Write the structure tokens for this entry.
Amino acid sequence: MISDAEGRPIPVDRVFKETDHFVQRHLVLKAAQWGRGLFERQALFEPAGDAGLLSLQVPRAFGGSDLSFGDKVKVLQKLARIDFSAAMALVNSHNVAVQLVKSSPYVLSPLYAGDLMRGRIVACTALTEPNAGSDLGQIQTTAIRHGDGWILNGSKTWIINAAHADGVVVYAQTQAGAGVKGIAAFFVRAESLGFERVAVSTNSALTSMGIGGIRLTNVYCDASHLLYEPGKAFVDIMGAINRARTYVAAMCCAMVSQALTDVRVYGQKRTAFGQSLDQFQGWRWQVAQAATALQAGELLVSAACDLIDQGSEAQTAAAQAKLYSTSMAQTQLGSLLHAMGAEGFLDQYAFLRHLTAAHAASLADGSTAMLLERVAQDFRFKPGAS
Ligand SMILES: Cc1cc2nc3c(=O)[nH]c(=O)nc-3n(C[C@H](O)[C@H](O)[C@H](O)COP(=O)(O)OP(=O)(O)OC[C@H]3O[C@@H](n4cnc5c(N)ncnc54)[C@H](O)[C@@H]3O)c2cc1C
């Protein structure tokens, strides 16, 4: 958390500056090492908390910076230029702090939000299950009333930060057959009896995302830890998912932007056949294609950010921004890596980490098929409409 001597929150320019310092002092130094699978949670979350990166959209009254969504996205882009996975880990924990403050300001927020904002504890959001990914209505984790509280049973997988989180927002079905209307959300502490972690072994480029799974066996959750009642949980996810789609799209643009910077610099100094690479028209055209595609992605992201900040409907705009930007990053990062020659595979560059991240981004927070379906809904023939 960053605040001045009187405890007042710091203006947005200062947040951007703190982010730049954090990137230079922590991400730039550690990202390659994390990309080889050597990730330590303390090296990411506590320094990020000190830099104010875990309280970006927490309201000022609760000690946060209360940034607009657009400004939060700019911060995430600065992080994702170096390490998309670390940026995802931080924003996922940050988002839980915002949820606790907004949904439970007098009960859960005093218990956990301060430590989440400082990076002393870490949280995550668990929807996906071994047998339910895109089809959320099919989740099988159950929450059954038990006295004043609830008993939770089930498994979650592919959850960012689950490998080491202290608290998990678990989405569970409270009523068989009720579909999404029966889903509620609970803040479950990892120290609860019956809570186990399940390892997910994945590509080390994603290590700083802390991907993991959890198994809940008769975990008791006090009524005070019900975060969203049945019915409200799904509405909240739908809003959150539009925001997540938009910042994932923005972070894909940031990865391509970083790659373009590296390629431009390298193209000036590397020579072949008596001239620098950027003197070759064919080489320059690859770079021009990437720069144009990036510009298109950024415009879609900017349109979605504006709608979110205005409080307007952003479902289609967020879906289109993510659809375009993830596939743009999948294509252009490969093309820009090629433009670097073998040099692009060196540890000092992020091309390989970013390529893996772009592919992961096309699944997280709504797979490409789900987004296409969302956009297609707008083009369906509606009887009576001209
Ligand atoms: C890096 C990463 C981080 C993640 N973090 C989280 C997290 O923090 N919390 C969380 O809850 N989940 C998380 N997820 C899970 C993510 O939300 C799911 O991967 C996503 O919902 C897709 O589910 P699935 O992987 O089970 O694929 P499936 O739903 O099994 O789909 C497999 C393939 O089929 C396609 N498909 C599915 N349905 C249709 C259809 N109707 N028509 C056509 N094609 C279809 C999909 O597009 C996909 O290509 C993460 C995933 C990744 C990769």
Q: What stands out?
A: The pocket of flavin-adenine dinucleotide is lined by residues 92, 124-128, 133-134, 158-160, 206, 209, 360, 363-364, 367-369 (CB under 6 Å). Residues 12-121 form a domain with the Butyryl-Coa Dehydrogenase, subunit A; domain 1 fold (CATH 1.10.540.10). The chain has ten helices and ten strands.
